[in-house]
Amino acid sequence: MIKVRDLHKNYGEHHLFKGINLDIDKGEVVVFIGPSGSGKSTFLRCINGLEYFQKGEINVGDIELHSINRLMPDKKDFDTIRRIRLKVGMVFQQFNLFPHMTVLENITESPEKVLGIGRDKAVENAVALLKRINLEKKVNSYPDELSGGEQQRVAIARALAMKPEAMLFDEPTSSLDPEMVGEVLSVIKELVDEGMTTLIATHEMDFAREVADRVVVFDQGEIVETGRPEEIFTSPKTERTKGFLSRILKRSIM
Amino acid sequence: MKNVLRLLSLILGLAVILAWTVSSQTSDNSLEKIKKRGYLLWGSDAEGGAPYAFPNPKDPSRLIGFEVDIAEAIAKELGVKAKQSQNAWDSLIPALERGDFDMAMNGIEITEQREAKVLFSIPYYIYTEQLVVRKEETSIKDINGIKGKKVGTLSGAVAQDILMNIGGVEVKVYSGQVEPYEDLALGRLDAVLLDLPIAAYYAKPNPKLKYAGSPVGEGFYGIAMRKGDEQFKKKIDEILSKLLRTGELKKIYDKWNMWNEAQAKLFESIKGASGYVGLEESKKAPLYTFLPNLLKGSGITIIISVVSMALAIILGLVLTILRLYGRPPLSALAAAYIEIYRGTPLLIQLYILYYGLPNIGISLSPLMAAFIGLGMNYAAYEAELYRAGINAVPKGQMEAALSLGMTQSLAVRRVILPQALKIALPGVTNDFIALFKDSSLVSVIAMVELTKTYSILAATTLRFFELGMIVALLYFAMSYPLSLFARKLEKKLSNKK
Predict the structure, then answer these.
(1) What pTM was estimated for this model as a whole?
(2) Test mutation, A91, A114, A156, chain B, max B CBs within 10 A
């Protein structure tokens, strides 16, 4: 469903991606791991058109996104990016709920204004989503009245309200207090169980092992290894993966 | 937000209609226009004061002065009424050229430079220049004793040229004729050289001052009319000759005690009876007599401030959006606009708008020019406030909106601006209060708002202190409720998002 071919990305002098290739099937759950700054977040952001890339192409379904002129993108490019975003929902590390809107308005805003579905229908959908994440009591609360975990669950509901075909999670639990990580992960787990095509960048290794169909290890802008979770976590093939895993496992023991 | 915008655009719409209906007119056949209009429109500066044209101390909404009498006599001959149009003295000629009134009469000396720009009538008065010093002054006996001294005069007056030509004199120019005498009495000047009628009215009754020597220089006051307005000039000349022959003009000068030997060249010599009107009386008039004028000035200040701010708020928003989200040529233009308007004085912008644009065929009414001048200037400042507000909204907000499939413009409208404007609000209300005070600058483009009303009244009555306190109080009464309202609004917005 998602095809990435020869993706190049530089930040000025720094050449981050030097030709990445990756295919993701419909319904597949892919977890991206790797040290901070390895490029896993940037990779997800490229798929959603939030980062420009200099060379290569990304296919989502039948939509093709080529590298585009960053300074003068034309209307057609914007249109392509937007069509991709309508297929692919995104959840951010910092939640990014709209602080001036209630929980309900956060969820109904885009379905109403972008998809043009009626107010009543949008509210009905939103309430159903809030029930699913056990937050129907917070319909009229503002984001700053919610805990971090609740905010992130609303952010997931907000993305789902657009009925995407795939979901991108960019370190969804990294800014949460430890006791709230579980409630967010269980919402993601539910989604995965329903068969949603899911891409997750995370440091939660246990969760990766539990939900992933495939694990992709990033290091310094390169995919150093991909494989089934049991292969990666029990018998990694490369030294870089081994090094990363031992560092992160040591940290979780301490 | 939507309602506020709607209200603002309504105010703007009304203002445009109002401004166009009082729009000025330019044409060369003034004579016909005066007859059609039913009144003669003549320009002068009431701040210039007595005895030319100044507010009647008993009824400050009406002007009196020898030139008011002459204007009325001329209007009577034309079979119409006379109406004065207020304008700063040193811009009377440009205002005449742009067609704000039919003629200018305000002690305008006939000089070669001025004749190059306007038509002058035959002289209606012969003026001389009188040097005035402090009572105890002994070193300055006459005009020959002023070398190396500080001498005050009126900006653009012939006396200024005389002083410059003497050389070695430290010339201080003023825009009003009262202030030089005030400064002389206070010891800030050594002498003042001004037209005799001015000296006779303001210096002679002052016990601290005295005349030094006899009058020097001699020149003519003439009525200024537009170039090309030949028929009108012919008619005015005929009327002035008639008023001269019948002795009507002399009667007027008698009334204002302006006769002197020099006038013999214009008239048969007849001794004038004395009788000052004004100065002493207006010094005693109760303060409430000035209130209607001051309140009218306040009203104009409020209209100008509210409409200009509405314009600034909307135009500023357009500028910010173009600057931040517009394509290269537009964003650069918006940025240039903001930098130019912030980097040049408001006063210069107003002058260009009002006196400069008529040169390329765009003639704005004073009210319209005030709205646009202040509005366009403040728009640059509002734009910067909005930009700061937008920059303060976290980047993730835009990314989240885009990731939900919103277009950039929808995201700006629904997600970014509501948050940014809330951040910008305290700055905007602060600017609104500042605008109330800056609105006094539009007096240079012939708007008589509160500050101008004050300087006109104070120049006539010399009651700078009492009137000043009242005017300051009026300004405070306008701006303080505004800051209270702003504080309430901010509180409301931070409670409910």
Answers:
(1) 0.71
(2) A114
